[in-house]
């Protein structure tokens, strides 16, 4: 596990160097179609680098990446251990010249992340974790927030997730924030800079596998939006959204999402990007 974590850290440096060459440099852009969004030549070159470096070092591991073979290729399911990678998480931010994009890499064994790195090269932020080893930011241990009450919480969440139909148990008080990379949002919960994060939409494995381990190793509870454990490298490589927070706050937010009693009225105080 520690050797795999060192491998991910080394590979991330090379990925960041490639991304930096294309950042604010008019990288070529394509639309992937089918509502999948854009991809750039930077995404593809970072993906090629990571696949070459990681698979050469661990030829017995499976491979899953947003920018590689289609998910209908299920050879990865025959592997006990699989790399799950998002070459650039936050491609739209990258295209717009925003620095909040990330390289997200996880080693997943029997559906559970065991080593993970989320690297933001333009912000010089390296989040890392190993199962049972804790989580770090730039080599320094990090810990999730201990805030308990929703009305005291700084929550990373997109505005559509705050529509009333998603909160059958009542919408809690919270202060809303946003960051463009889903992996970064989860890692920020591990860092303790924010108290919770929520995404209602189904989340692809490559967006959340790495940061889910970082947040949980830092002490956060990380589940899908209905409170079930996250599982990775299945035929359908998605989970039903993500909810991450310290234990008491996670429970209170989950009450609102699942329809158990929570009667606070909506009072969403929004900061950050839409």
UniProtKB/TrEMBL annotation:
GO terms for biological process: inositol metabolic process; phosphatidylinositol phosphate biosynthetic process; signal transduction. Coiled coil: none annotated. InterPro entries: Inositol_monophosphatase-like, Inositol_monophosphatase_CS. Keywords: Magnesium, Metal-binding. Its cofactor is Mg(2+). It comes from the Bacteria. Pfam families: Inositol_P. Mg(2+) binds at residues 66, 86, 88-89, 207. GO terms for molecular function: inositol monophosphate 1-phosphatase activity; metal ion binding. Belongs to the inositol monophosphatase superfamily. This is 3'(2'),5'-bisphosphate nucleotidase CysQ. It comes from Pararhodobacter oceanensis.
